[in-house]
């Protein structure tokens, strides 16, 4: 996943939610190197950016990396319907990873129907 950047000097500090397109490119290229592969099957933005980067900018970079063949599919995690609509205007959202469980079902009301209507795959997680 993209967008979580750890503090190299303080590993106990929580990661920052960074959407800077150049940071995302570095993350993908670093993953390709460490995994020793030419393409990553799925790369997702972990959370909406907290650094002021517009969604259209970080989503545009993920789509560009897909177009370059570095990533096969791109998706978003923890994004709501308004954010999904904004991303879809830039380019198709291949996957969404929302929190969902038998106890936490809120996502079923909005995000899951959005995904069905837009032919977006869903990979759920439960905190």
Concise summary:
With 127 residues, the chain is α/β, with parallel strands linked by helices.
Q: Give me the oligomer status.
A: single chain
Q: In CATH, what is the homologous superfamily?
A: NADP-dependent oxidoreductase domain
Euclidean distance between termini CA atoms: 16 Å
What is the strand content? 15-25%
Shape: globular
Radius of gyration: 15 Å
CATH class: Alpha Beta
Judging by the overall fold, what is the CATH architecture?
Answer: Alpha-Beta Barrel
Report the sheet with the most strands, covering strand number, pairing sense and barrel closure: 4 strands, parallel
Structural class: alpha/beta
Count all strands and give the number. 6
Question: Helix and strand string, N-terminal first?
Answer: EEHEHEHEHE
Task: Please provide a written account of the structure.
Helix 1 (21-35) packs parallel to helix 2. Strands 3-4-5-6 form a 4-stranded parallel sheet. The protein has a two-stranded antiparallel sheet with strand order 1-2. The chain is globular and about 40 Å long. The protein has one domain (4-122): NADP-dependent oxidoreductase domain (TIM Barrel, Alpha-Beta Barrel), CATH 3.20.20.100. With 127 residues, it is α/β, with parallel strands linked by helices. It is 36% helix and 17% strand. Strand 3 (40-45), helix 2 (55-67) and strand 4 (71-77) form a beta-alpha-beta unit. It has 4 helices and 6 strands, in the order E-E-H-E-H-E-H-E-H-E.
């Amino acid at each position: 996943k993209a967008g979580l950047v750890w503090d190299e000097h303080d590993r106990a500090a929580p990661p920052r939610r960074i959407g800077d397109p150049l940071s995302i490119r570095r993350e993908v290229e670093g993953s390709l190197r460490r995994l020793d592969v030419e393409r990553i099957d799925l790369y997702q933005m972990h959370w909406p950016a907290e650094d002021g980067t517009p969604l259209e900018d970080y989503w545009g970079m993920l789509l560009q990396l897909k177009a370059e063949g570095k990533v096969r599919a791109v998706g978003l995690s923890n994004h709501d319907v308004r954010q999904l609509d904004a991303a879809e205007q830039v380019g198709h959202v291949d996957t969404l990873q929302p929190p969902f469980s038998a106890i936490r079902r809120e996502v079923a009301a909005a995000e899951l129907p959005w995904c069905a209507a837009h032919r977006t795959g869903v990979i759920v997680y439960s905190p």
